[in-house]
Amino acid sequence: MPNRLSFLVDVEVHRFGLQTQVVELAERLGVPVCSTLLGKSAFPEHHPQYIGVYNGEAGDPRVRDIVESSDCLLMLGAFLTDINLGMFTANIDPCRTVLANSERVRIRHHEYSNVEFASFVQELCQSPDLLHRDPSWIVPMQPRVQPCDGLLTMSGVLYELNAFIDDETLMVTDVGDPMFAATDIKTHEGTSFLCPAYYASMGFAIPGAVGAALGDPFRRVVVLVGDGAFLMTGMELLTIKRLGLNPIILVLNNRGYTSLRTMGHQQATYLHQFPEVDFAQLATTFGGVGFVVETAEQLRLALAKAKELPTFSVLDIRLRPDDVSPALQRLGDLFAQRLRVNESTQAITVSKGLDDADDEDRLAFFRARIKDRCIAKIVPNFQPQQSAPLP
Questions:
Q1: How far is CA 205 from CA 23, 172, 173, 188, 297, in A?
Q2: What is the DSSP letter of 310?
Q3: 79-99 pLDDT per residue, tens
Q4: What are residue 193's DSSP bridge partners?
Q5: Cβ-Cβ contacts under 8 Å for 66 (sequence gap 6 or more)
Q6: What is the rounded CA–CA span in Å between residue 84 and residue 378?
Q7: Tell me, what's the pLDDT at 314?
Q8: Who is most buried in 107, 186, 207, 209, counting CB within 10 A?
């Protein structure tokens, strides 16, 4: 489609209470809308013009193609962080973007300070020059999940969650696979999703459930958390019990730090020393109700029972250690590819030396060093192979 415009919606649309105005603007223009992980659900995900979460090469290829091929990408309330840009895999041309947030408005390479974000959106909505486009070509968000028979899979968990959540649900996820998997969870009305996609702080979900339940007592909090993250802050179940809250907590029990295993840390000693924990029994000990879940049918029954409980519940979801969401699998493939590039490039520079290397090898060397820095931000204790010193 010629002269295509797209929206990328982020968390400040929610923080400034601009959801209604942005929906109105998108409908007047007839354009596709996506969000970042941090801004997920700031635009209603059941809206026919919503296409999904943009996450660079780690995200849905269909969403990526629409965003990166847009003639003009309007980024509203967006922060250009590593998580929001698919671990620096985004391919967005600044010459075809308009970025508006609370800090500045940037049109192509020109920046305008002291422009109030809310006023910018409101004035844009009131403009008489908006050109409407036919939105019938837009394919709404399509979660990349399938139901499963037999033992439960990560895809099956997401499929059952999509069937379970409704307008009265508020989702909270932790970092790692729960957060990346959320790209394939389709939320309902309003801002109904919270995750730590800015600092990626592990252990967010259980304390976050306390804040979410107190901040919005009219919706049921559903938590998706990994077993490693739960062990960091799971004692907050005592706070949840003391305050009389009743979140439904799904613990992805795959006996280890799956996101780290997927992103090139398979040989790390601590990954093979993960303690055996009965999370369902732990919930009972702390005054809640626990369920052991190994199949899709058991998950459906546990969710239905948990929904009727006046207290908190913990669903101990037993998964294979190598079973991950589509988003994390894609991210793991990208990391493996980058690590192979680093190893081959560093081998060249060690054997030839930078002084004798040609321009192409020098450029590859410096690119590899930059990639090392990007990976080190995400993979704890990442140690690149030794290479020739910088000239």
A1: 29, 6, 5, 20, 25
A2: S
A3: 988 888 877 788 899 999 999
A4: 171
A5: 4, 6, 32, 34, 51
A6: 13
A7: 98
A8: 209
